[in-house]
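Morning!

This is the sequence you dropped in the shared folder:
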Amino acid sequence: MFDIGFLELLLIGVLSLLIMGPERLPGAVRSVTLFVSRMRRSFNQIKSEIEREVGADDIKQQIHNETIMESLAKTKSDLQESFQETADELKPDLDKLQYDIEDIISADEKEPTDDKPQS
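The structure's back. Tokens below.
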């Protein structure tokens, strides 16, 4: 974590022994060890809580996305049904219009055209 090597630890140990003396050094080491373990435990708890929150957010986002996709699929099917109903309603009118156009065309072909110039 801090990237401390053996030589650095040895130097810290020797300096601690010289400054505190042999009587107080074991108590100081115990205190430092407890402090480091508490910090490590707190860090791990915070890390796991953040991971849980991030996981919960991902799940909420996925559920939200699925809800939107279901809504879009329902809207799509409703539109398809509406278009089909409209097409079914317009089909007879289109067929009648086609026959009317064919009647007009055939009537135009039967009528003679006047090519005489008007005076």
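Headline: The first helix runs from residue 6 to 110.

More detail when I'm at my desk.
O.
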